[in-house]
Amino acid sequence: MPETNMTQQHETAPLFSVVAPVYGVEQYLDTCVASILGQSFDDFELILVDDGSPDDCPAKCDRWAAKDTRVRVIHQTNKGLSGARNTGLDAARGEFVLFVDSDDAIENDLLELCAHAIHMDSTVDVVYFGYTVPGRARKYALPANLTDHANHRRDVLWNIVRGVIPSHAWQFVAQRSLYQGITFPVGRVAEDVAVTYRVISRANKVYALPDCLYRYQVRSDSIIGRSQEKQLSYYKDEVTSFREMRAAFHDDRELLIAADINMLDHLFAHYIYANDRAVARSVAALISDESKSLRNDGVPLTYRCKMVLLDAGVLGAYSAIRNIVKSIIKGK
């Protein structure tokens, strides 16, 4: 890769490779890197992939590498989040990989707790954890029935495919070999949906920690705040990822239905919260198109009713009234 300039090399392979794509995050980068380098467990390398960032991030990355030999920096022309993750994954030498978005941060015992889970049971090749969002009181912990023990991949996979556990690529550490032949789709968003289930499908055992160890920074440029064109592009890419997921499980009725329901949950939410009529109409068309290929014998009646309301053009009004009634009941 001629455009790549890598600084600092470990002599021996570490247990963990932490991969952090970097682009346009100069106000967050130092906090992110400090949280990683401040880990209570130090057998890791940090790979900062400068994805052609136009701000001070490239220089910041080099300064961190000059201060700490665990930091390796790759400078490349812009390839997007997926391309940067792929670059970091290719360069990783650790037995396990953790992705961290460079506007986020991690708790200082994340790697230590993951290492403990791995060393307790040699069959564990993925460790999951919960997350928090700065400014929100809620903690996004994993389902209690999964935590504090090793789970068969099927139990965790169902929760991911159904959407009970989000498809965040940064919410787990995984043995690097599980990514063999898997790449994040370049040129698409909703890339986590396209990859996470494939990695977990290959796992042997998945340990689920009860702790919330990742700090997810929700930025103001959320999908709702984007242009009409970018919103629709995101939704279409998301549907593409769900189509791939459903194709992967075409012989597994339970997982196929779970994927159908998860996709409908996402699309109905996008429709209801659309702040533009044209976007809402386009999402409605996506729902109509995708519903034709659903396993209707397994999709709950509530979803089929929602599709009827959507066709009648009253789903948004129904949802608004339902939310008002819920808030009144909760207030009693």
TrEMBL record:
<dbReference type="Pfam" id="PF00535">
    <property type="entry name" value="Glycos_transf_2"/>
</dbReference>
<feature type="domain" description="Glycosyltransferase 2-like">
    <location>
        <begin position="17"/>
        <end position="145"/>
    </location>
</feature>
<dbReference type="GO" id="GO:0050510">
    <property type="term" value="F:N-acetylgalactosaminyl-proteoglycan 3-beta-glucuronosyltransferase activity"/>
</dbReference>
<keyword id="KW-0328">Glycosyltransferase</keyword>
<keyword id="KW-0808">Transferase</keyword>
<protein>
    <submittedName>
        <fullName>Glycosyl transferase CpsJ</fullName>
        <ecNumber>2.4.1.175</ecNumber>
        <ecNumber>2.4.1.226</ecNumber>
    </submittedName>
</protein>
<dbReference type="InterPro" id="IPR001173">
    <property type="entry name" value="Glyco_trans_2-like"/>
</dbReference>
<dbReference type="GO" id="GO:0047238">
    <property type="term" value="F:glucuronosyl-N-acetylgalactosaminyl-proteoglycan 4-beta-N-acetylgalactosaminyltransferase activity"/>
</dbReference>
<dbReference type="InterPro" id="IPR029044">
    <property type="entry name" value="Nucleotide-diphossugar_trans"/>
</dbReference>
